[in-house]
Amino acid sequence: MGYYDGYLILSDIDGTLTRQGNDLSEENHEALTRFMAKGGYFTIATGRSPEFLPQFPIQPNAPLVSINGTLIFSDSGERLLFLPMEDDTETPLRYFIETYTGIRRIIRSAQSGVQNWYRDKDGSDYSPLFIGDEPCLRYYFCCDCEETALRLMADAMEHYGERYEFNRSWADGMEMHVKGSGKDAGLRFLRDYLPGIHTTIAVGNYENDTSMIRAADIGCAVDNAIPSVKEAADRVIVSNMDHALAYIIDELIPSLKKNA
To answer: Cys staple from 146: which of 96, 171, 191, 215, with CB 3.0 to 4.6 Å?
Structure first.
């Protein structure tokens, strides 16, 4: 029996697991390596596409939750969960583009890559947003400022919230993906898929982490998280600069085991 048997940790990357980009601290790397060696399951729940993983400093031992929970891969490359937007996306996208001149760029994410639309370069030609051999998993709207992103998201949720999920990964952007997807969907899938899980721990710092934090048995917000994420969390822990994953592994879980 391993010390961490039955524990599943899901972590956001930017602003949570890493200090910046792929900058993973030695403390987090050592703690995660030890956690997995002693029976724990660890994975990343991210808005990034799965091709980033081979270059990441540590490899999870549980399936990757990518593109905000619309795509889950096993360590052998098997696609376990796939939640594309299969209905009409042209109507809402045209509405957003025509209503909000502050949308500067839209990224269309599919399993194997992305396509970009730039307002300044493409003008009114929206065709890159609907062309592709693969189904669309997510649209990402890059705005000129946070105020535009907030107005866009409020409008999107009012008009299209019954069909799509809308959230933010950072201040001046909004993500759109199919209803029922999200990092929480990834957590619930893995809780059922992996054997022997008794405790799920999720940690993040921004709005797109909120659903996962709420769905976990123990939802953690790093100290540098935005206020709404802290409010949603069961616990506010140390910041991403203070090795948050090492804190969960070396202090939080031992306290849970002691008080069980």
So the answer is: 171
Per-residue pLDDT at 187 exceeds 90: yes
Q: Cα-atom radius of gyration of the chain, to the nearest Å?
A: 18
Q: What is the pLDDT of residues 47-69, one digit of tens each?
A: 988 888 888 999 999 999 999 99
Longest CA–CA separation in the chain, Å = 61
- 182: tokens are 């999200």
Amino acid of residue 88: D
Which strands form 79-82's sheet, in the order they lie side by side? 64-66, 71-73, 79-82
If we measure between CA atoms, which residue out of 137, 133, 87 comes closest to residue 107?
A: 137
- In the prediction, which pLDDT does 186 show? 97
Q: What mean pLDDT is reported for the chain?
A: 94
CB 244 within 8 A of CB 17: yes
Query: Token pair for residue 207?
Result: 């709005």
